[in-house]
C-alpha cells in the first residue's frame, strides 16, 4: 500500500488500521459483516512504525494518534476510534440481525460489554506491557517482566475458567460467537510473544482454534498484514528458539521476585 495522506473513500466504512491485536478487531468484524450482509468497506494501512498515525490528517480522525479508526461515510463521515468502540458501533448500526452481537435490551448485551471491558482494561494493557518489557525495552528489567507476564497469566486463567464449559465467551448455553470473542482473539493469538504457552490454558487454546476456523477471521487477520504468530501454522524453528530464550528471562525474573501463579 502507498503511504496514506488522507481519506480516500466517499461512501461506506473506511478502515484505518495496522496488523496489531487491536487492529484486527475492526478488520475481523468488517469481514464478518461483509460475508453476512454484503457490506463492503475500504481499508488503508497505517504504518505505525513510520508514525503515519501521528500525522495531522490522522489525528483529526483520532486525536489519540492510534489505530484502528473508522470513518462512516454513510453516517455524516462519523469518525470512531478505539477498537472496542468500533466493535460496538458497527454491531449496533450494521449487525441488524444480531449475528455477532446481542440485542441492546438483553442481559447478554450487558455480559458482552463486561467481557469487552475486561479485555480493554486487563488483557490488552497487561499483555501489551509484558511484550514491551520482554521484547522491546532496551533494558531487561526483571520486576517489570515478572509483574506484567504474571498479570497476563492471571487474566488468562480467568478466561480459561470461563471457557471450561462453553465454546464462546458470552451467550446462552455454550455461548454464541460475538464481538466479545472478536475483542479478544487478536491478543490471544499473540500470546506466545510473552513466552506463555497455549498449553497452560487448554480451554483458551481450543477456543482460539475454533475461531481460526472461521473464514472471515482468517481474512481479517490478513488485513493489512498477517500476524507474526499463527496458531494454525505453528511456530517456525526461529520463533520457537526466540520464545525459549525469552522464557528463560521470564523464569529468572519470577524466581528473583518469588512470583507464584494464582488466578483469579
Automatic annotation (TrEMBL):
CDD domains: GST_N_Ure2p_like (cd03048). Residues 105-243 form the GST C-terminal domain. Residues 10-98 form the GST N-terminal domain. Belongs to the GST superfamily. This is Glutathione S-transferase. It comes from Trichoderma cornu-damae.
Amino acid at each position: 500500500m502507498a503511504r496514506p495522506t488522507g481519506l480516500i473513500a466517499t461512501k461506506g466504512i473506511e478502515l484505518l488500521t495496522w496488523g496489531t491485536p487491536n487492529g484486527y478487531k475492526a478488520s475481523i468484524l468488517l469481514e464478518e459483516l461483509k460475508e453476512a450482509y454484503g457490506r463492503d468497506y475500504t481499508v488503508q494501512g497505517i504504518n505505525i512504525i513510520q508514525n503515519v498515525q501521528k500525522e495531522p490528517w490522522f489525528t483529526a480522525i483520532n486525536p489519540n494518534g492510534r489505530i484502528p479508526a473508522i470513518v462512516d461515510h454513510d453516517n455524516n463521515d462519523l469518525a470512531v476510534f478505539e477498537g472496542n468502540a468500533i466493535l460496538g458501533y458497527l454491531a449496533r448500526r450494521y449487525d441488524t440481525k444480531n449475528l455477532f452481537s446481542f440485542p441492546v435490551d438483553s442481559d447478554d448485551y450487558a455480559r458482552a460489554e463486561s467481557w469487552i471491558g475486561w479485555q480493554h482494561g486487563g488483557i490488552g494493557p497487561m499483555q501489551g506491557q509484558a511484550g514491551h518489557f520482554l521484547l522491546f525495552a532496551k533494558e531487561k528489567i526483571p520486576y517489570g517482566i515478572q509483574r506484567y507476564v504474571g498479570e497476563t497469566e492471571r487474566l488468562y486463567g480467568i478466561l480459561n475458567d470461563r471457557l471450561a464449559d462453553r465454546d464462546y465467551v458470552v451467550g446462552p448455553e455454550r455461548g454464541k460467537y460475538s464481538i466479545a470473542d472478536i475483542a479478544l482473539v487478536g491478543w490471544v493469538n499473540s500470546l506466545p510473544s510473552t513466552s506463555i504457552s497455549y498449553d497452560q490454558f487448554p480451554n483458551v487454546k481450543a477456543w482460539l482454534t475454533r475461531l481460526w476456523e472461521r473464514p472471515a477471521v482468517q481474512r481479517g487477520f490478513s488485513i493489512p498484514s498477517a500476524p507474526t504468530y499463527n496458531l494454525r501454522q505453528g511456530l517456525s524453528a526461529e520463533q520457537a528458539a526466540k520464545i525459549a530464550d525469552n522464557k528463560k528471562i521470564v523464569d529468572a525474573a519470577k524466581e528473583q521476585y518469588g512470583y507464584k501463579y494464582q488466578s483469579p
